[in-house]
Amino acid sequence: MNKNDSIGHPERILFVTGRLAEFSLREVLEKLAPQVGFEYEVAVLNVQVAALLHVPLIRRRLQVPESIDWVMLPGMCKGDLQELTDHFGVRFERGPKDHFDLPEFFGQANRPPRDLSGFDIEILAEINHAPLLSDEEILRQADLYRNSGADLIDVGCIPGESWSRAGEVVRLLVEAGHRVSIDSFDQAEVEAAVNNGAELILSCNYSNLDWVSRLGTEVVAIPDLPEDFDSLHRIVDQLLQSNTPFRIDPILEPIGYGFGASLERYYRARREFPDFEIMMGIGNLTELTEVDTAGMNLVLAALCQELRIKSVLATEVINWARTAVTEFDHARRLVKYAIENKTLPKHIHYQLVMLRAPKLKQLGAEALQNLASQIRDPNYRIFAEENEIHVMNRDGYWKGTDPYELFDQFQAVVSKSLDASHAFYLGYEMCKAVTALTLGKQYQQDQPLSWGFLTQEEVSAQERRQEERKGPQCGPR
């Protein structure tokens, strides 16, 4: 693609898109055009999603300025582009399916990373049932939460019991450099915690309003019953009269117990308390819904960002929520960036794409066959494509869904049996390939599968052989 015409002027390209992608497309083109050396205009047709564009619609609605050399359409645009070329008198081409791949399309694949250092939402991470833990366990869990992104450690007490060491443990955490809140309705626990450095009390309603409002410490105001929003108004009025600092929490309810109505209460709280801080306890959803939590955390972070909810209470009690704090940390940064930059929260970073892959890059059947025909050495190449594992070396090309059967097949034709380490390597790699096929992940031999922020780096077989200086490599050259 020439970036200058025959008399030396930069090409002028018209990029066609839908309303949803306009802002981020312009952001990409603003940086890309000077790098590649073209000029551009953007035509936004009256559709939300660019993938819905098709040739008849474009022919009816598009106007092509006279100065345009050619027109780029989204890659998923349907229809015969020659019809548009004949109608408008300029060349039409399909670009990539996603405009974030335009740098690669124009040979500028290296895109600078997005700045995700900013966030607006504070994370309180609860140490659940702290009285049942040793001091060492409490400190270890607090450090883990802080390293996961928590801003404040919430010491969770046991309802109906009074813990004599609440103040002592809070002091221990404060001395270790943690900011601390106390989660209790017991007066002795709360007063001891506040006297030893707790800066926030969870929670305050009419059952403890009389004494908690005298402590001078910020409280989380909640309704007496989740559905009784009017009681929240009365509690706020009392806290204002006593000059008690507070934030409010209308209480997020679990699915099946008023979840939808509780979301509406957060919207109502923002309308009726426009200047007050709001908190959301997200554990009622993440802990009480049997599903992977990363997606829930992203949606909850987006809701909080849009409603200016500046703090959440997160927990990691049940196993499927064991990384909930880290997930919300990534989510709060992603949604802040997306909302501030008026762009969709995609193709910004992939740390929360954990189960599958953001994009699958596959060679295809023809390329795999060509590659197999050119191999002249005994090293095995393994691919995972088209719902099959593909194994090839100079002795043959085998493919199928059962790694045991594949192993028997290529073992039957090789001149020499595999040694134990080589057999282990091939089994390990085929196990990864099966996992990739099962989940829709990208598989690349000798590379770790990507699990988002949970990805573990691994030393390849080739690197191990080089370090050990033993025998030939068993991975690909």
TrEMBL record:
List the GO biological process terms.
pteridine-containing compound metabolic process
Matches recorded under SUPFAM superfamilies: Dihydropteroate synthetase-like
Locate the Pterin-binding domain: which residues?
103-336
Give the InterPro entries listed for this entry: Dihydropteroate_synth-like_sf, DUF6513, Pterin-binding_dom
- Entry protein name: Pterin binding enzyme
Origin organism is: Gimesia chilikensis
